[in-house]
Amino acid sequence: MAQDDQQARTFLRNAIAKHQDALITTTTALVRIPSPNPPGHTAHVADAAIKLLQSIPHAHVSRHETAPGLVSVVARIPSGRPGKRLVFNGHLDTYPLCEDLHWTVPPTGGVHKDGKIYGRGVCDMKGGIAASITAARMLAEHRDLWRGEIVITLAGDEENMGSLGTKWLLDNVEEAKGDAVICGDVGSARVVRFGEKGFVWIAVEAEGVAAHGAHVHKGVNAVRHLRKALDAVESLEGTVVDGPRDVGEAIDAAAIVSESLSGEVMRGRNVIFACRWVFRRMTS
Question: pTM of whole model > 0.85?
Fold first, then answer.
C-alpha cells in the first residue's frame, strides 16, 4: 500500500506540473474581473468561476445569491466511492481597489511582470481560488486515485466579515461542511498554516463633559476613561486558549511548514474592538 501511495503522489506531482499554464491563465482571468468589497458585488467573478467549474468532469455546480449582486458558488465532485469530504474554501471578493494609491500597474489588469502576476486580489485570494479549481480539475480527471468527494466553496463575502459568505454557506448548504478544509488564502506553497482562530468584537464607550480650552478643569476627558478600558482589553491578547490536546499536537507537528509564530497565534486570543467616546455639553 505504501508503494502504491508513493506512486500516486508521484503521478499527482507530474499532473500538477502539467497544469501550471492553466493555473496562471485562471488567476489572470479572475483578477481581471473586479470584485471589491465594499460594495460587495461578486456576480460577475462568480459567473466566471462557475464556467470554469462546470468544465470539470463530474462537477455539480450551484449558484447562491445571498444579497443583491453578492454571489457564492459551490461545486461538488464525487469520486463514485464512499469516503470523506474534503472542502477547498476561498472567497471571490477582494479589498477595495483604492485607485488613489497610485498603482504602477492597472489593479485589475492581471499584468505579468518579472515572473509574477500583479493586481488587486492576486494573493488574497484569486490565486488561491485558481489553485483550488486547478487541483479539483486534476483530481476529477483521476478519480481512481481517491475516495469520497471534493467540494469547492467560493464565498462572495469575506472582506466584510463573511456573514453572507462562508458562514451563510455553512448554515444553508449541507455539502459546504466537510471532514477537512484547505483554504488557499494569503501564503505560498512553502507556508502551510494549520488551525483556525475565531474573533470577538468588543465595543467600548466612554462618556465625558466638554469644556472650554481655558477651563479644562471643569470638563471630564472621555479619552482618559477610554484609554484605561483599551489597556484592559489589550491585556486579553496574551490569554492562552486551552484547546483539545489532539489539535495542539497537530499544530505543533505543522510547525515545520508554518510561520515561526503561527502556533502561538492559533493558541492565543486576538481582540478587535470598536471604540466610541461621547462628550456631553457642559451646562452652567
Answer: no
